[in-house]
């Protein structure tokens, strides 16, 4: 006997209800109230089972007042980023500010998870690096969880 891991759905019709069995692939699509099909939001997976988790990101905007002193911060922060698996996605580079107020530098650092991104910021290694930057730059930093769901 073959087992089928699907979803049983009752659909109301003019002459009563009809039972339909949906496969796991079909279950990923849902019908909204307007009758259009949309992709269902993904379920969070347990990281203990080795499944994927949403990544974590640092999004920083920085105005540097003393570039020579700021280099010491850059050298010191490498230890914390290496320890927590931080990878630069954006590091300086050309940009155009289309809305809001710009700063001189923009940086985006990717981590394997939001928790690792937070732990890196709270680490002793990064606290030391941050102390080197404090009087030589003004920055805005947001630590944010990446989005792992359906796209438009």
Report what the structure shows.
This protein is an alpha+beta fold and 152 residues long. It has two domains: 7-40, no CATH class; 53-145, Alpha-Beta Plaits. The protein has four helices and eight strands. It has helices spanning 24-27, 67-84, 114-122, 124-133; strands at residues 7-13, 16-22, 29-31, 37-39, 56-64, 87-91, 105-111, 137-145. The strands form three sheets. A four-stranded antiparallel β-sheet has the order 6-7-5-8. Strands 1-2 form a two-stranded antiparallel ribbon. A two-stranded antiparallel ribbon has the order 3-4. A hairpin with a 5-residue loop joins strand 3 and strand 4.
CATH architecture of the largest domain: 2-Layer Sandwich
Estimate percent helicity.
Answer: 25-40%
SSE arrangement, N to C = EEHEEEHEEHHE
Mean of pLDDT: 79
Sheet of most strands: 4 strands, antiparallel
- Counted up, domains total 2
Number of helices: 4
Physical arrangement of strands within the biggest beta sheet: 6-7-5-8
CATH topology of the largest domain: Alpha-Beta Plaits
How many strands appear in the DSSP assignment? Answer: 8
Oligomeric state of shown chains: single chain
Task: Write a brief caption for the model.
The chain is an alpha+beta fold.
Draw up the topology in text:
Layout: E1 7-13, E2 16-22, H1 24-27, E3 29-31, E4 37-39, E5 56-64, H2 67-84, E6 87-91, E7 105-111, H3 114-122, H4 124-133, E8 137-145
Antiparallel strand pairs: 1-2, 3-4, 5-7, 5-8, 6-7
Give short descriptive properties of this protein.
single chain, 152 residues, alpha+beta, Alpha-Beta Plaits, 2 domains, four-stranded antiparallel beta sheet, two-stranded antiparallel ribbon, 4 helices, 8 strands, flat, disordered N terminus
């Amino acid at each position: 006997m073959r087992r089928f891991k699907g979803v049983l759905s009752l659909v109301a019709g003019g002459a009563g209800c009809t039972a339909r069995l949906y496969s796991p692939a079909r279950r990923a699509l849902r019908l909204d109230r307007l009758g259009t099909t949309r992709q269902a939001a993904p379920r969070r997976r347990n990281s203990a089972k080795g499944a994927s988790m949403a990544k974590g990101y640092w999004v920083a905007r920085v105005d540097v007042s003393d570039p020579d002193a700021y280099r010491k911060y850059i050298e010191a922060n490498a230890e914390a980023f290496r320890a927590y698996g931080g990878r630069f996605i954006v590091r300086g580079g050309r940009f155009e500010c289309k809305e809001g107020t710009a700063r001189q530098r923009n940086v985006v650092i990717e981590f394997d998870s939001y928790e690792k991104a937070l732990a890196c910021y709270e680490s002793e290694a990064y606290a030391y690096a941050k102390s080197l930057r404090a009087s030589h730059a003004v920055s805005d930093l947001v630590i944010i969880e990446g989005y792992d769901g359906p796209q438009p």
